Amino acid sequence: MTNSKQSFADDFKDRIAKIEADAKSIGLNWTSICKEAGLSRATPDRWKKRVPKTIEVVTKMEEIVERHKAQASAA
Question: Is residue 52, in this structure, part of any structural domain at all?
């Protein structure tokens, strides 16, 4: 992650935006990137609207661990 305070989901969104910007700067489009990566062309569009569930679950797990760490240090 680029910033230790940044959530996993925010980092994911930043990475998708960077891929899109870098690709655009060299004349590459999502269709060709998706084809090469073996993804449906609609996948990045879905990711822009909603972070994949697996990333949301990882963020939730991080929050649970942090909460338990805080409780343990308070005890």
Answer: yes
